[in-house]
Each structure stands twice: as C-alpha cells, then as structure tokens.
C-alpha cells in the first residue's frame, strides 16, 4: 500500500475556521486537508467542495470550525490494509480520497482514486 499512497499533504487543526481552511487549501493548491484534533490525531479529511457548500449555506457564520463540519471521525485505512480493501472502503463510501493512519492515529499518507 505504501507505494500507492501520496504524502499526507496539508494538515490543519480542527479548531480552524472554514474560511481559513479554504485559504490554506488554495495556498497549498490541494484538493483536501487532513484535520487533526488537539492531540495531533487525524480526525478526518475535508475537501474544497464540502467546505464551499458549508460556506455558501445561508446559516453560515465565520465562526464555523472544521470540527463542526466533520462530525464523527473517519473513515480511515491502515498502512497494513491491502489496496483492494482500501479501494472497497472508498467506493462504498463514495470517497475520492482516504487517509492512511498509523496505530497512534497520525496520518502517514492519503490514498486517492484515479480521476
């Protein structure tokens, strides 16, 4: 699996606002950000489209944090999982990318489906 994954890419804290996250994403020219909690553990992956929908909602305020958008943690895969297992998870969840996390909850990479 290590050969198939990309480097983790930009990682941000879950208390970051949506607006700042969109700026980080634009500056990094990334399609997604890995989100971490206060302990540094990966809590999820968030994409530009998801953030844009939140920002364009009439109820949006500039106080909305990434932790408010993400909800529950996951899905994730392990570096020990096979490509077939990871791909099944991605297709089942209709995910374009899937964080690969180690036993401590830290992101070691990201798997992305080919476009």
Automatic annotation (TrEMBL):
Residues 10-48, 77-112 form the CBS domain. It comes from the Bacteria. Signal peptide: none annotated. CDD domains: CBS_pair_SF. InterPro entries: CBS_dom (IPR000644), CBS_dom_sf (IPR046342). This is CBS domain-containing protein. It comes from Streptomyces sparsogenes DSM 40356.
